[in-house]
Design brief:
Blueprint (H helix, E strand, L loop, with lengths): L8 E5 L4 H12 L3 E6 L2 H13 L4 E5 L5 H15 L4 E4 L15 H29 L2 E6 L12 H21 L4 E8 L5 H9 L2 H8 L9 H12 L10 E4 L7
Helix pairs in contact: 1-8, 3-4, 4-5
Bound molecules: nicotinamide-adenine-dinucleotide.
């Protein structure tokens, strides 16, 4: 469907499951080559084998996105293996337990900001350096509806995702003349391990999350991946610095 993605080299962080894996699958269907990255190396290697057996060139590099040296090594490994980096999907992220700000755990705040915000900053920095060297590229950050508005009891997460939205817009402005586009996808609640973990802790959340949506359901990872693919492809060639809500209409309310 998106001819422009054939043979493109795409890096995805947090690729072992959820929105990251759905994005990898969708990009593979468009003919992209994949550099997958996440924490669990064994799972990553199994995924690589599965992609290769289906004809998609793929590689896995373990990387904790909070580690500046590991992130630099990840971009270097991508270029060493595939020769370039055309698209980057900065997706690795974590949640924290529900808590109001007055009772917020400092450790939870530091942890979520380290992964969700500093991790994206570090990835963008090294991806941009490579894209500048080679003359272009596209970056898609996975932010959240929590990057566009407040969300009670998710203060640390909200702060981290607002930061990602800010970095997305800033990088888009800084590199618009360098053939580099930077956008974000802002999912509402999506059926992945992250949300399943939250529901296991508070089962009543499932109904609450579904009924809060105008479409009375959560998003599917594949529905986020479809927008990631569009933003990576040349079909979005004039889309830059945008943070797209993919939310079944939630922000229309
Ligand atoms: N699921 C939702 O409802 C939802 C909504 C809005 C935004 N998001 C965002 O989407 C992204 C993907 O989340 P998901 O729902 O697929 O969750 P998920 O938990 O299924 O996947 C997240 C992946 O990130 C990896 N990861 C976590 N910490 C990491 C680190 N320090 N370094 C490298 N990898 C790390 C995990 O191992 C996991 O594979 C996250 O940024 C999340 O904040 C999710």
């Amino acid at each position: 469907m998106y001819e422009s993605l054939k043979g493109k080299v795409v890096l995805i962080t947090g690729a072992n499951g959820g929105i990251g894996l759905a994005s990898a699958e969708a990009l593979a269907r468009e003919g992209a080559s994949l550099m997958l990255s996440d924490l669990d190396e064994q799972r990553g290697r199994e995924l690589v084998e599965s992609f290769i057996s289906r004809g998609t060139p793929a590689e896995f590099e373990a990387c904790n996105v909070t580690d500046a040296k590991a992130v630099e090594a990840l971009i270097a490994a991508t270029v060493e293996r595939f020769g370039r980096l055309d698209c980057a999907v900065n997706n690795a992220g974590i949640e924290h337990a529900h808590q109001r700000l007055a009772d917020h755990s400092d450790d939870d705040f530091d942890r979520v900001v380290a992964v969700n915000l500093k991790g994206v900053y570090l990835c963008m920095k090294h991806e941009l350096r490579q894209m500048l060297k080679q003359g272009g590229g596209t970056i898609v950050n996975i932010a959240s509806l929590a990057g566009l508005g407040g969300a009670p009891q998710l203060g640390g997460y909200v702060a981290s995702k607002h930061g990602v939205v800010g970095l997305t817009k800033t990088a888009a402005l800084e590199y618009a003349r360098k053939n580099i586009r930077v956008n974000a996808v802002c999912p509402s609640f999506t059926k992945t391990e992250m949300v399943k973990r939250m529901i296991r802790k508070r089962p009543e959340l499932e109904h609450a999350l579904e009924s809060a949506s105008p479409m009375k359901r959560m998003g599917e990872p594949e529905e986020m991946a479809n927008v990631v693919v569009f933003l990576c492809s040349d079909a979005s060639s004039f889309v830059n610095g945008q943070c797209h809500a993919v939310d079944g209409g939630m922000t229309a309310m």
